[in-house]
Structure prediction request, 141 residues.
Amino acid sequence: MPFLEKLAIKTMICLCPADLRADLITYAEEYKINLQSFDVKVNQEPFLSMDDDQMTQALEMLSNPVHRPVLIFCVTGKVKTSCLVGCFRKQQSWSFASITEEFELFAEAEGGLCDLAYIHRFVRCLPSSSSDAIADAKDES
Prediction:
């Protein structure tokens, strides 16, 4: 995986732990990459919704600059990843129109209205230290 080596990834966030391959676990251990798994589930009408606690934990990890650069992935790299990034953008105070545009670009036809509704209603706030970290990261760029 020479391409990943060039990125100097510090953390990998896996949103589909059941599909985590042994060779990726070995790779992370070999290159001292912090590999974290969060079973965020799926959004599906009418009664299934992503796991807020798992999403919050993944968001806290993503929001902390200590863990960057971060590679986020799920089975296809579309819906679950786009939902996490959408919640992250919401924490960064992006407009919902911008979040929706980015979501549709990367989730393509696989993302649905229930996924956008999840992002829209997601209101868990990060601890103040993580919020401060986001502000610090904005100041650095």
